[in-house]
Design a protein that fits this description.
alpha+beta, Chitinase A, domain 3, four-stranded antiparallel sheet, about 20% strand
Length: about 100
């Protein structure tokens, strides 16, 4: 399987000494819902990943390459494998933050 994602980190997922972002979980969710709506309305997932994602995969439009079930953290992997090719997830919460996942293969 292959998927792309957009990740928004938030301060609730990291101890104060490791926080890279000052956004709250509510702010991350609100932003991600807006991004999801824009994708559903036809904007490019890749372009929005490059603009919004906190993951280094943003430079590749959020592309994570191919991976097998269990290779990613469980919540992410379960959500990704539940999608049909071309389907966009709802918000997925992991220890890294809030994700949108697009299954591409």
């Amino acid at each position: 399987m292959r998927a792309s994602h957009i990740l928004l980190e938030h301060k609730m997922k990291w101890p104060p000494s490791k926080q890279r972002h000052h956004r709250s979980q509510d702010d991350a969710e609100r932003t991600m819902l807006e991004v999801r709506s824009r994708i559903v309305d036809g904007e490019s997932f890749s372009d929005l990943a490059q603009t919004y994602s906190d993951c280094s995969s943003r430079s590749d439009g959020g592309d994570l390459g191919r991976f097998s079930h269990g290779q990613m953290v469980r919540k992410f992997s379960d959500a990704a494998f539940a999608l049909e090719v071309g389907e966009l997830s709802n918000l997925v919460h992991t220890e890294f933050g809030v994700h949108l996942i697009l299954r591409t293969e």
